[in-house]
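Record 1 of the preview.
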Amino acid sequence: MLEVSNLSAGYDAKAVVLDVSVNVREGEAVAIIGSNGAGKTTLLRAICGLLPVSSGNVQYAGTSITNLAVHEIARSGIAFVPAQRHLFPEMTVAENLALGAFPHRPDPDQHALVLDLFPRLAERRHQAAGTMSGGEQQMLAVGRALMANPQLLILDEPTTGLAPRLAAQAYESLAALRGQGMTILVAEQQVPLVLGIADRGYVLENGEIQLEGLASDLRGNPTVQRAYLGVV
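->
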């Protein structure tokens, strides 16, 4: 479904990710793991059109989307949830969800699916987004992305700012989405959580892919264990 080939991108002519290749097949959950500053956010922003690709190619559903406008990439079936969430804090939960379907009218079936996945959003539907807890805001950010009925959901550090219990709850929701067949690409520092739902993963460090493989193989890899899983 998504094929990223030899991608390089960065800021002010300085490469942050260099010659990166990753792929996501339909129905998979794929993890990009790495330490803070490894280039995970840069990679996802380049895939989604928020940052220019200096070299390489991004192909989605058999068509190149390299350096397309953000709205064109979004309308192709890709939804991106940034770490900062970018909710409209003074608008209600219901209003934020409705905006997720723009430029189309909200689909009642998709709306029902989102509220079934996140019952707390139904309880808070008249509440201003900015007054909710961090965990609830993360639910809303994912729910808003799902309102577009995407074929590929891309998430950048979905546990940012969340306490461990709320981070675990966020991944329970992602596991539920995975169980419904959603294709997911997620960048994350919380490696045990993300490898718990992923089929495959890539280790990104210093802007380059260092390791790749099945999630089960990465969990058993001594390098990954020492660097990310706390195994001495």
